[in-house]
Amino acid sequence: xxxxxxxxxxxxxxxxxxxxxxxxxxxxxxxxxxxxxxxxxxxxxxxxxxxxxxxxxxxxxxxxxxxxxxxxxxxxxxxxxxxxxxxxxxxxxxxxxxxxxxxxxxxxxxxxxxxxxxxxxxxxxxxxxxxxxxxxxxxxxxxxxxxxxxxxxxxxxxxxxxxxxxxxxxxxxxxxxxxxxxxxxxxxxxxxxxxxxxxxxxxxxxxxxxxxxxxxxxxxxxxxxxxxxxxxxxxxxxxxxx
Length: 242
Known about the structure:
By secondary structure, the protein is an alpha/beta fold.
């Protein structure tokens, strides 16, 4: 699909004129680095397992069958050697220039930080960091990946849990309010790689009022009609053209 040069130029001018950009990203930002999502055509929801895919990433499975939980994590969630793509790198560049004030992400892979971004709000946590569920000692993801069976704390033998929000856990209300505050204060919101079909994504984007809204996503979103610039393409491809 040919990229729309007219819309790319409009986005380039909007970015040039902005001084307080906030970026809100979903799974589409990470899939271009080779990570699978949950809901897409090749996502985990389309694959067949003994349980529904969301069950394998749930607090319930971690509690009642931790060995099966970590078996799935190592194979389907953690076992990917991926690098930041053009979208991650462009956002880090804008931050260094002082244009980008915050990245709000639904992803848990830490690729924004790997690209050099510092101002990242991770709504669903970061799977590259872990902690003991009993004594709360911090661990790196190697504590899970370089072990077999159930990873145990060296101090108290509690289970080591990835710092990602599992199904059955609530999002941090403080992070949600921080994200909403950034969006309210932004002079432009760029939304990329998300279908905007679930909360908190929809409610957060609604905080963008009377400010330019850019949506970059291959598929339709329910907020397309509100966007000042709407580009139906992969976000890495779009950012590479800027």
